[in-house]
Amino acid sequence: MTRYETVEDLPEVPVAEEPSESIRTAGWRTFRPVIDRGKCTKCNVCWKFCPDVAIAIGEDGYPVVRLDYCKGCGICAEECRPLAIEMVQEE
Amino acid sequence: MSEAVISGNYAQSYAAKLARVHVVSAYPITPQTSIVEKIADFVASGELPAQYVKVESEHSALQVCISAAALGARTYTATSSQGLLLMHELLHWAAGARAPIVMGVVNRAVAPPWSLMTDHTDSISQRDTGWIQFYPESNQEVLDTTLIAFRLAEHPDVRLPVMVTEDAFFLSHTVERVDIPSPACVDAFLPSRSREGAVRLGARGRLGSFTGPDLYMEFRYTVARAMDRARGVLEDVEAAYERATGRHHGGALPTYRVDDADAVLVTMGTATSTARAAIDAMRARGKKVGLAKLRVFRPFPAREVAELASRVDRIGVLDRSFTFGAAGAAFTEIAAAAHDAASKPILRDYIAGLGGRDLAPSDLDGIVSRLLKADASGIEWYGLKRRRAEVSSWPA
Fold first, then answer.
1. pTM score > 0.90 for this model?
2. CA–CA dist A46, A53 (Å, integer)
3. Residues B41 and B103 in one domain
4. Which structural domain range is residue B347 located in?
């Protein structure tokens, strides 16, 4: 929280000390990407194209969908050359 | 110091080089292009050790500058017309993020109809974004004002972005003799940007984070206060620039032959030079007329306008843009500021020179002559062609 005594003490720009990852932003998803490790070539294209931060690269080099942030836009599935990502409707 | 015969656009390029900018990002648009082409030359040849970031749009260009500025870089960009309009969202962001970016804006008409010519609608439409705005009238003033803009923008009491405009082609592509100060002179006037407040590697956080109703207003107020402080800081910076170079461009509202004037015309940009000649010619004919140049539109020089309005019976405003459903933007604000004057002058708004329509000395003479005869306040479109016979290029 920002602490100030007078309005003149405010910082020039509001800066939250907590990174935005604490805010889960996936509430409106209707399709989730499901990665087929058999087809995945670990090329990272899905990670590069994700417009959010919803794909991480795991220690084994395979992409992992971060479902707390994925909005289901399907860009990763569209860009995936080996067709390793399928968009599956949520329950 | 060296002399060169350069365009207004190159005046911006040389100023950015002299300011030793760290990051430049821009997208080309006529008539801005030669500003950033020249800077690209400086970077390619090694004369300017800056990062030149190529992007796919003006929106991205400004985002690059905002991010680089947050890291403490001195940043520059330039645009015009539709490109400036595309930046609009991030213009607000730059000011709210207190990014001291300097941007050259070549004033070009907004489409439709398509036009490449001078008109102030593009930058006037950005008046509420929190950017300081200058309207120079000569290439020398463009160069000097751009250097002044960096020091003003980065001043700890201001820390706001600044636009230095140029009338399309009249300044951007017309060459004039310009005195270019030496690097040593500029380095003394404009030292490296302080890294105070800049984001540091390893820091975690969210710049410009979500702010609720209990604090949003207060952050907007800090921008308002910074803009108010810019008035005084500009006086100091211009005095320092005069000590460094011997040149001073007269503050926010320089006046000319207004002391015993019955009528004063207010102009912005290059119309000022033409108006000055027209005022001299009218003075020679015994007319008591004067001129005020609205050199700084933001922060608006309300006090100077009120002082002027207390001294003259008639103020005319030449607006090279129009706010639909209201009046010219300069007129509206001058009328508001004149409300504080001891006496109430007649106020006339002359909408003229839109889309690059020429404003010859005879036009300025015509406008000031009408102002002298005016017996009521009001708005008129000067030189509007109401009949086909007056138009040389009427569509078939």
1. yes
2. 11
3. yes
4. 255-390
